[in-house]
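Students often ask why inverse folding is considered easier than folding. One informal answer: many sequences map to the same fold, so there is more than one right answer. In these notes we will look at a single instance of the problem. The structure comes first.
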């Protein structure tokens, strides 16, 4: 059997590792566009960006994995069980699409983006005293960069068209706490206003504000990296459309940020690894059910935000205080049923609720147990 994996990020690499863990003796090719060996992306907006830590490569060696790792090779097309790459053609029995996502850009792409190790290294010099950074987009990456930049004493302007950071995903109550966190660390918040004109060192906002900065970071979210699949047999709709086990077609699978499983595309590190294990099991012929409670985290200043469950900005939210340090825990529900939680440095309390979230327990019972 021959398995070709496209995209040498966490999802692609974990598929290869999980196949070997299951004893697969398939011939495996892992194709990656970047020249670096697979590395971890979360530190790119945190320790690596601040210069506190070296990049974290995901493996020390590849020999024991028995994989044909082809770096600096780009997949360009897919047709009739043949993958086209900048290196030629590759037949396969199973193809796993793990090409991740690419940042959305402002018109003319005047600023920096943050997706790769090279991006992080290019942005790092602007996180310094006396430098001013304009961050467009107050999502997870924008907020993390703002926090990292403040810790290096750079001035930060955080701009978002919505009137609170992360409003759509986390709802107004938690979003307000995140806005307050950034304001308390001296971030200049420009919320509820878009960018009218942007150049490399100037942002003109739609409310008339003009910001002169040393660098602009475009952090307005990502789009799935599917451009190369335009004429392929897979269905594209905000990512590669898959069933609930990652199957996108006959012998074709997708995992990670690029993949939309049962109508949902997740852009989180843990989901990428969990999906990889499920797809490796399916390729190995196991009967699989992908039944996980989604998890994500984000480090901002001294706060570790942790989210568990599939919450929506429209859910009901009650914030309770948990543990001896009275840490905030936001409890999300829909129609009286628990959908998930978001903790502010409340990891133990978050994780304890996993079973309740999986069962969509009555939220009144959960709140009574938390506060009783
Ligand atoms: C700065 C940053 C911080 C983050 N922090 C967190 C965090 O704190 N918590 C959290 O839960 N998640 C975080 N994430 C999200 C998490 O890192 C992603 O969900 C995860 O990396 C997705 O893995 P992936 O393998 O699907 O995609 P990627 O990691 O993007 O890997 C895809 C790979 O495919 C390659 N590729 C693309 N197109 C082609 C092609 N045509 N041919 C060959 N190769 C190709 C790309 O170059 C890339 O190397 C962060 C992401 C970023 C960028």
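Output (designed amino acids):
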């Amino acid at each position: 059997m021959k398995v070709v994996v496209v995209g040498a990020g966490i999802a692609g690499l974990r598929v290869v590792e999980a196949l070997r863990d299951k004893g697969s003796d398939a011939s495996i090719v892992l194709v990656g566009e970047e020249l670096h060996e697979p590395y971890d992306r979360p530190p790119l907006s945190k320790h690596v960006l601040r210069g506190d830590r070296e990049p974290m490569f995901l493996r020390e060696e590849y020999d024991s994995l028995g994989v044909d790792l082809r770096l600096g090779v780009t997949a360009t097309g897919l047709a009739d069980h043949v993958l086209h790459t900048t290196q030629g053609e590759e037949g396969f029995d199973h193809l796993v699409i793990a090409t991740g996502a690419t940042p959305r850009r402002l018109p003319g792409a005047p600023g920096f983006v943050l997706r790769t190790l090279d991006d992080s290294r290019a942005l790092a010099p602007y996180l310094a005293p006396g430098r001013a950074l304009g961050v467009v987009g107050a999502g997870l990456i924008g907020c993390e960069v703002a926090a990292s930049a403040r810790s290096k004493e750079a001035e930060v302007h955080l701009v978002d068209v919505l009137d609170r950071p992360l409003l759509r995903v986390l709802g107004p109550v938690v979003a307000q706490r995140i806005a307050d966190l950034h304001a308390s660390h001296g971030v200049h918040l420009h919320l509820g206003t878009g960018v009218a004109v942007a150049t490399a060192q100037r942002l003109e906002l739609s409310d008339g504000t003009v910001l002169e900065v040393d660098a602009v970071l475009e952090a307005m979210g990502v789009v799935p990296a599917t451009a190369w699949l335009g004429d392929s047999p897979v269905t594209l709709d905000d990512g590669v459309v898959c069933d609930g086990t990652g199957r996108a077609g006959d012998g074709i699978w997708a995992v990670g940020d690029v993949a939309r499983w049962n109508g949902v595309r997740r852009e989180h590190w843990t989901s990428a690894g969990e999906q990889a294990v499920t797809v490796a099991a399916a390729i190995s012929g196991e009967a699989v059910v992908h039944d996980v409670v989604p998890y994500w985290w984000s480090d901002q200043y001294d706060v570790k935000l942790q989210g568990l469950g599939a919450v929506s900005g429209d859910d009901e939210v009650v914030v309770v205080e948990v543990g001896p340090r009275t840490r905030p825990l936001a409890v999300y529900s829909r129609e009286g049923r628990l959908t998930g939680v978001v903790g502010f440095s409340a990891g133990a309390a978050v994780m304890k609720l996993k079973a309740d979230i999986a069962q969509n327990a009555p939220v009144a019972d959960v709140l009574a147990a938390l506060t009783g």
